[in-house]
């Protein structure tokens, strides 16, 4: 607008662009939300394509096991829920916005618990002799599986007037419940596994030595160190994303669905990181005769019926038991 004069109609070359039918305070945020969905979809797709050779190696060497099923559920369902459908919902014309949103949220009901289940298997391997610990964390996982319904209940969609493009309505505060619960669950998982790993480290029994072992992995053999450090990478990356997503959702002064813009990237990031941590532990050639490590190795292979994937710490043939997996760096 020049000198307060109105824009002449002939200057508007594309009056039917979807953003023209939204208020100015909504249109910019709608455009930003679309960019975030597209970027998330591209990043997740690239991560998955890069991981295909490693995933093939996992299936080829261990077969169809419960951890592998949880892995591919997290991969495929979160990839569909958090990235593909979210992108289609915001950038392509849709005949039935509500139906697509219900499908997207239905995938969330499967994908979010599947991602958490990967870490439940991880903890169950470390604490396989403690039924109380496994039961407590199993209840946490059931809570995540049940309360993920808030993703579906808390988000509604509308249609941009005179178009077939969809947009999400104002996010409700209880949309943050699955995010916060997953972050709390991850925190307890991280602390429990880290405590077990540091406690088993062959270092001096002092707070200083234990703290140093926590940050550096000193005193831990290869697999134990991989479990500790891969968990640290996952936790410190995803906890920042969880806090950011929750703060936006609770920011009621932001109009439209923009407060919910980081929810999908958070779940996609959590899935990608959890799957990477899973591959780091499974894929590698490791020789580690630590008792806890052998328990972990045997647990991950216990679901396969192939005896070549089982390990016997009483092997008398003069060689160390070997966890034969390929390392993913």
From TrEMBL:
InterPro entries on file: DUF6533 (IPR045340)
Key words, A-Z: Membrane, Transmembrane, Transmembrane helix
TM segment ranges: 132-156, 176-198, 233-254, 266-286
Alphabetical list of Pfam families matching this protein: DUF6533
Domain DUF6533: 35-76
Keyword set includes Transmembrane helix: yes
Listed name of the protein: DUF6533 domain-containing protein
């Amino acid at each position: 607008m020049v000198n307060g004069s109105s824009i002449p109609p002939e200057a508007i070359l594309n009056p039917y662009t979807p953003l023209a039918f939204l208020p100015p305070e909504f249109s910019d945020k709608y455009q930003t939300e679309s960019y975030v969905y597209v970027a998330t979809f591209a990043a997740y797709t690239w991560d998955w394509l890069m991981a295909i050779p490693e995933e093939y190696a996992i299936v080829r060497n261990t077969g169809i096991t419960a951890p592998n099923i949880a892995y591919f559920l997290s991969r495929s369902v979160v990839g569909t829920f958090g990235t593909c459908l979210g992108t289609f919902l915001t950038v392509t014309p849709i005949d039935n916005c509500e139906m697509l949103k219900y499908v997207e949220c239905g995938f969330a009901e499967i994908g979010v618990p599947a991602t958490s289940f990967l870490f439940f298997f991880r903890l169950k391997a470390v604490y396989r002799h403690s039924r109380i610990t496994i039961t407590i964390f199993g209840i946490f996982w059931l809570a995540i599986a049940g309360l993920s319904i808030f993703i579906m209940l808390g988000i509604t969609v509308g249609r941009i007037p005179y178009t077939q493009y969809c947009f999400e309505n104002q996010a409700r505060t209880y949309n943050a419940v699955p995010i916060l619960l997953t972050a709390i669950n991850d925190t307890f998982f991280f602390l429990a596994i880290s405590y077990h790993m540091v406690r088993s480290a062959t270092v001096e029994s002092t707070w200083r030595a234990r703290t140093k072992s926590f940050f550096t992995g000193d005193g831990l053999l290869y697999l134990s160190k991989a479990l500790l450090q891969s968990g640290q990478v996952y936790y410190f990356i995803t906890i920042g994303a969880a806090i950011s997503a929750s703060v936006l959702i609770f920011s009621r002064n932001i109009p439209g669905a923009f407060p919910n813009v980081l929810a999908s990237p958070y779940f996609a990031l959590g899935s990608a990181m959890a799957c990477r941590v899973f591959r780091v532990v499974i894929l590698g050639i490791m020789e580690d005769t630590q008792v806890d490590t052998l328990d972990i190795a045997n647990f991950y292979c216990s679901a396969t019926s192939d005896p070549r994937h089982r390990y016997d710490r009483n092997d008398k043939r003069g060689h160390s038991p070997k966890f034969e997996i390929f390392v993913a760096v």
